[in-house]
Design a protein that fits this description.
The structure is a homodimer.
Chain A lengths: L2 H8 L3 H8 L7 H14 L5 H8 L4 E7 L9 H16 L3 E7 L4 H11 L4 E5 L6 H9 L3 E4 L11 E4 L1 H14 L5 E5 L5 H16 L9 E3 L4 H12 L7 E4 L2 H13 L9 E6 L16 E4 L2 H17 L7 E4 L2 E3 L10
Helix pairs in contact in A: 1-2, 2-3, 5-12, 6-7, 8-9, 10-11
Chain B binds a DNA duplex through helix 2 and helix 4.
DNA sequence: TTGAAAGCGCTAACAG
DNA sequence: CTGTTAGCGCTTTCAA
């Protein structure tokens, strides 16, 4: 079932059929109706490969996974983000092409991807403060949007980020407001832009409260329960242990809760905890209205939808200056905080 | 930079250049070397769209995400599986096309995807015991491999699954061997094939030990910490509470641990727990050699690699009877079990 | 309002 | 061993 066979069975030329189907003007109402009816009846679907070759548009967006990755797709944040983006793409007729980028020559990988013509745009995730991929992609002329930011990148580029600094400052302020002065930060991996911003927010709020940031209370690790557990164990064992914890993910918080309880303390009474939470469907912070932890919550799925929309519009209007969007995290009160330090 | 311009700059015909580049025979050694050198020098990369149209192969594999999904990509199991599969695809020059399937007319969605020519094969995840998608895809003639099985599907089809029944029977047997007689099963969502098989393994091992399965001790829910927590709370409150727990995921186990500890019991002493663990990089069961929980462990990433290989070979040799592969879970001893019931 | 013709960039018979 | 010739299925000028 090709455009041509369909045209023949209608006694029309492929041209007319194509125009009728693609909603171009200059086709008689009646002809268009006939064509559409026949197409539906025969179950005709245009071949995207051919269409793509003819139009030059791939109708697909690239998302990249580093091959070695423990931080990308495997982190449910990215999966939820992609799921959200996928909804937007699907509505616009775009597919997602997931590219597994071999380790090593990253630049060449991106270049190949751009040249390949398989995708019309790229969504970049997990940027570092001085991420080279941004200059690279800008140079390649492939439209892209970054999920997160590269804080040290001077040139303008499109991004959508959560206000990490503000969320962590707010959480810290909440804790200083309760009288806490030793507030540990169990952050994500060092070198990630979001972790840098979170640390900055924490430090700023401490300084604001007249507290000198204590490097011994700030940790950077992959965001797993085990890390939260071991870090909190060590911290509870300090001569002057923290009275409050700020954690970068629910899993870290789970680990902290465990260590704290093993140390004979109770969360929300002896020790306070605020965590960041990406609102993951797979890792819910309790049930709605009944959170497990006090948290700053980001709508990751929604962010995926929105980033995708930004990218699609960048593709549709090349030349436009890139847009940026900063999302505010919500504040969710749970039982894990509220207590003044003992 | 097209094949033609490259050919012109070499003074050869596009045909020869194409053959030289694609490793066909019938090209002089020297010509081939010259062509390859020039291609590299000019940074030539063939246009996959054109190649795809000419060959009829898309060089891409489809993975489907239901639009409503809380069970698919958002579950890190699927993400890790896809990451593994992606490695295999990448090595063979294939991309992953992630299709977000709108809710509702699923069948039509798959049909469209098959007709679209965007993909050469499909990897199906999260099957139900009587999953209609299998007959549908078989009818469409699109090669596919199922991650998991549809137990009630009679016709042969390719699949790769973990031996859920056996893993859960083994875990249960381990617990009955310790003398436990009230062994709760906190399973995954009802209706998923894997959950059905896990329940069957649990029941079989109980029966084998002369214990009548107690429906009150078997639960089905999404695999979150909250579920593990609430279910275990209820179970610890029973007149005759379970002395051991078998859980379908690490997050459930985390919830159980919490409920159990809140009830004043200690895991591994007062109460035993064995969990299933998919070996996720994002949700590690402790660190290697130091697990948090005793577990049956499946190598999900590796399964992804292998399923992808099966699919690629099904694509390469159409007509071959479909292959199937059953993966054994490993047994990992942790501190959460080992105790006889009190 | 419709159709003919010329590609999009590549592969694959078929000759030479 | 190399080149000529047709397509793959669709879009898109340009004429009619």
């Amino acid at each position: 079932m090709t455009l041509r066979t369909l045209a023949e069975s209608l006694g029309l030329s492929p041209t007319t059929v194509s125009r009728a189907l693609n909603g171009y003007g200059d086709v008689a109402q009646e002809t268009r109706a006939r064509v559409q009816a026949e197409a539906r009846a025969q179950g005709y679907a245009p071949n995207p490969r051919a269409r793509s070759l003819a139009t030059g548009r791939a109708m697909a967006i690239g998302h990249v996974i580093p091959a070695d990755s423990r931080h990308e797709i495997v982190n449910p944040v990215f999966a939820d983000f992609i799921a959200g983006a996928g909804e937007t793409y699907a509505a616009a007729g775009y597919e997602i092409v997931l590219s597994v980028m071999p380790e090593g020559d990253e630049a060449e990988g991106y270049r190949r991807l751009a040249r390949s013509g398989r995708i019309d745009g790229l969504l970049l995730q997990a940027p570092r403060p001085a991420d080279r991929r941004i200059a690279l992609l800008a140079g390649l002329g492939l439209p892209f949007v970054v999920h997160g930011r590269a804080s040290e990148e001077a040139a303008p580029y499109g991004w959508l980020d959560m206000d990490n600094r503000r969320a962590f400052a707010r959480a810290t302020r909440h804790l200083t407001g309760l009288g806490h002065r030793r507030i540990a930060l169990l952050n994500g991996p060092e070198g990630m832009d979001f972790a840098t911003r979170r640390a900055a927010g924490h430090a700023a709020a401490l300084t604001e409260a007249g507290i000198a940031p204590d490097p011994a209370l700030v940790r950077h690790e992959p965001m797993t329960e085990f890390y939260g557990y071991t870090a909190a164990r060590e911290l509870t064992g300090l001569a002057a242990p923290p009275t409050a914890y700020l954690t970068s993910s629910l899993l870290i918080a789970v680990g902290v809760r465990r260590a704290v309880e093993e140390a004979g303390l109770r969360l929300g009474r002896d020790v306070s905890l605020v965590t960041h939470d990406d609102g993951l469907s797979y890792l819910p912070n309790g049930t709605p209205g009944r959170p497990l932890f006090t948290a700053t919550q980001a709508p990751v799925r929604e962010m995926g939808r929105e980033a995708a929309a930004m990218l699609l519009s960048a593709i549709a209007e090349p030349g436009r200056p890139p847009r940026t969007r900063l999302i505010e995290a919500e504040w969710v009160e749970g039982p894990s905080t509220g207590a003044a330090p003992r």
